[in-house]
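Quick one:
INPUT:
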């Protein structure tokens, strides 16, 4: 049986409807800083082998939204320049990763490969948050086998439930979180980027994924 992994995000509600999405953005320039329009950009998912393409605009910019979290390589090609590839790029849930390129002059048949530092600061967004990876999901102590309780490992998150029953998945534990000063219950939970609550009363969950299906 094929196992499906779900990405779960819990955050303070600021708008009536918010959809999480991951994307790559960046700008392509030449060694003198001039933009390179109509360059071919290829986003390669190392784990699935799926490629997603884009073409830089007249300002040298590109954007590839709605890609899956995972490990990636990005390559850029343009006439009169060497092909450049960035490897070891990891895209997390709800992350906008900005990857800029400075192409070297040369033949298209020549190439330059750069291994990126996956620990660099994300400059693509001013949002704050934390990704709890699959190893932590499966290895860290988890009372009640409820993946939402992993939220307490993030800075600014407080669990206000006064009874151990509130950690159980079917007891709607998201109603008992305060995030960065927000009120308990004013949180939205999404699965794979889509809303996962009823929006009524205490914002009951529609579906509670089991721990083993969460990444």
């Amino acid at each position: 049986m094929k196992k499906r992994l779900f990405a779960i995000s819990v955050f303070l509600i600021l708008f009536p409807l918010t959809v999480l999405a991951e994307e790559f953005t960046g700008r392509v320039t030449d060694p003198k800083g001039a933009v390179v329009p109509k360059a071919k950009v290829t986003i390669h998912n190392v784990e699935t082998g799926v490629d997603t393409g884009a073409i830089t605009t007249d300002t040298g910019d590109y954007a590839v939204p709605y890609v899956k979290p995972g490990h990636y390589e990005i390559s850029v090609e343009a006439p009169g320049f060497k092909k450049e590839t960035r490897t070891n790029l990891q895209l997390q849930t709800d992350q906008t990763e900005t990857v800029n390129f400075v192409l070297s002059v040369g033949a298209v048949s020549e190439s330059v490969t750069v291994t990126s530092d996956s620990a660099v600061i994300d400059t693509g967004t001013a949002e704050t948050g934390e990704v709890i990876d699959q190893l932590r999901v499966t290895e860290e102590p988890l009372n009640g086998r409820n993946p939402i309780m992993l939220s307490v490992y993030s800075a600014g998150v407080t669990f206000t439930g006064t009874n151990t029953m509130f950690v159980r998945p079917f007891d709607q534990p998201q109603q008992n979180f305060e995030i960065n000063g927000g009120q308990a219950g004013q949180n939205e939970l999404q699965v794979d980027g889509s809303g996962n609550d009823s929006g009524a009363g205490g914002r009951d969950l529609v579906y509670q994924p089991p721990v083993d299906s969460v990444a």
